[in-house]
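Page 37, continued from 36.
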């Protein structure tokens, strides 16, 4: 399949693995890129710019295909050292950056001067248009279904993607709720040039996370995610567990008096305990509604090949066969 996204990033298939905290290590990114998609290292999971440089170098040892680095702009007072992260990415010879959180205005000149392609992930048409205006090469349009931060507009991809298609001039991929060949063909029917997946890629053989995380994804249904931190306007879609139910109880009890400090135990620093140690009740971890469509743990190559095979079959047989 040849689309604006495969051409832009020099990849074989229009499938991207979005940045994921404590999942987006070199092993994950390289496995997706070697399977013909675009894998992504998550910059903020690395404690220092030196660690990030090392992670980029490790990824280059594992693949000679293009891969991306995700820079997430967090709503935090103690901002990470973004200039140092950008410098490390440029010096590491990375060709693609995925930005998210806030728009990347502050880093665009540096990335563009280095010839890096930028795909910005956002959750609305207005943010997509802003990304286009500031010179992003593509957008990842993240619907309400998505794992992680769906924003506050609550527009699912069935509406958001055609709205983006009507307004955007730069290419975009669907993000949130994507799992298989049906997702890819549906996204493309709505105007996307490919798809971005998070949750689906965690349940793969190569994902460098504890087996408990993969098993939890396979066991869960589409009813098992919750939205947390909505009262703080920092909504996150997570897998439900004891800690999340406790967090939601606090949200109900405190109402608009809720502060971040009230829920710190359930959200701060929990990722290593979940992703590395497999302590599945340690706290809130991002997970999309798409868990309801995930029933196995294939290799990235098997997953990508299956998606492309299904997409091919749907387009050439099921859809064309239904034309009268
Ligand atoms: C465990 C997990 C961690 C994530 N961490 C980040 C992150 O650090 N930065 C980011 O931009 N997106 C993050 N995301 C969002 C994904 O990149 C992607 O946009 C999202 O998962 C798409 O929705 P899906 O899970 O339905 O495929 C995360 C998602 C998951 C599931």
């Amino acid at each position: 399949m040849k689309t604006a996204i495969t051409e832009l990033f020099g990849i074989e298939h229009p499938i991207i693995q979005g940045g994921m905290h404590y999942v987006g290590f070199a092993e994950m990114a390289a496995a997706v890129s070697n399977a013909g998609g675009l894998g992504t290292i998550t910059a903020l999971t690395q404690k220092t710019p030196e660690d990030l440089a090392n992670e980029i170098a490790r990824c280059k040892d594992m693949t000679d295909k293009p891969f991306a680095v995700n820079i997430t702009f967090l709503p935090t007072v103690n901002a990470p050292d973004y200039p140092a992260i950008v410098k490390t990415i440029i010096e590491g010879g990375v060709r693609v950056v995925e930005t998210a959180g806030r728009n990347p205005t502050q880093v665009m000149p540096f990335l563009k001067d280095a010839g890096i392609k930028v795909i910005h992930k956002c959750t609305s048409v207005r943010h997509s248009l802003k990304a286009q205006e500031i010179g992003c090469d593509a957008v990842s349009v993240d619907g309400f279904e998505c794992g992680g931060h769906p924003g506050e507009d609550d527009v699912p991809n069935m509406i958001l993607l055609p709205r983006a298609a009507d307004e955007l001039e730069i290419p975009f991929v669907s993000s949130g709720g994507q799992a298989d060949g049906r997702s890819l063909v549906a996204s493309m029917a709505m105007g996307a040039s490919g798809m971005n997946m998070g949750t689906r890629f965690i349940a793969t053989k190569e994902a460098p996370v504890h087996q408990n995380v993969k098993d939890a994804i396979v066991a869960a249904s589409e009813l098992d995610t919750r939205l947390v931190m909505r009262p703080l306007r920092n909504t996150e879609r997570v897998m439900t567990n004891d800690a999340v139910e406790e967090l939601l109880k606090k949200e109900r009890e405190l109402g608009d008096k809720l502060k971040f400090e009230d829920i710190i135990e359930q959200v701060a620093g929990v990722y290593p305990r979940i992703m590395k140690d497999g302590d599945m009740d340690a706290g809130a971890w991002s997970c999309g509604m798409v868990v309801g469509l995930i029933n196995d743990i294939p290799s990235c190559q098997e997953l990508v090949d299956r998606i492309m095979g299904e997409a091919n079959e749907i387009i050439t047989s099921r859809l064309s066969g239904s034309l009268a």
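Residues 18-21, 23, 42, 70, 72, 100, 121, 142, 145-148, 175-178, 196-200, 285-288, 290 surround flavin mononucleotide (CB under 6 Å). Flag for discussion at group meeting. The mean pLDDT is 97.
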